[in-house]
């Protein structure tokens, strides 16, 4: 994925992760990739990856368990 670095990057990363969630790439209940992995994959800072994950969490797509990571939330 090519990122447009002339505008904020975290929404672009969040949009790609959202697309993957919608496509079923990350099954409900499964652990979501960590911010270190996301940062490495997209070649962004960890804080950028954290903002993208936080946006998905705020949308109710993910939930986080302290010390374990983020997980894909289903349509409960």
UniProtKB/TrEMBL annotation:
SMART domains: HTH_GNTR
Keyword Phosphoprotein: no
Entry keyword set: DNA-binding, Transcription, Transcription regulation
Gene3D superfamilies: Winged helix-like DNA-binding domain superfamily/Winged helix DNA-binding domain
Highest rank taxon of the organism: Bacteria
HTH gntR-type domain: residues covered: 7-75
Cross-referenced InterPro entries: Bact_HTH_transcr_reg, Tscrpt_reg_HTH_GntR, WH-like_DNA-bd_sf, WH_DNA-bd_sf
Pfam families listed in its UniProt record: GntR (PF00392)
This protein's name: Winged helix-turn-helix domain-containing protein
């Amino acid at each position: 994925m090519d990122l447009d670095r002339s505008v904020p990057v975290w929404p672009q990363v969040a949009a790609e992760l959202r697309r993957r969630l919608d496509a079923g790439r990350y099954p409900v209940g499964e652990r979501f990739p960590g911010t270190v992995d996301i940062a490495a994959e997209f070649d962004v800072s960890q804080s950028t990856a954290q903002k993208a994950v936080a946006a998905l969490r705020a949308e109710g797509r993910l939930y986080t368990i302290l010390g374990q990571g983020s997980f894909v939330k289903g349509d409960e």
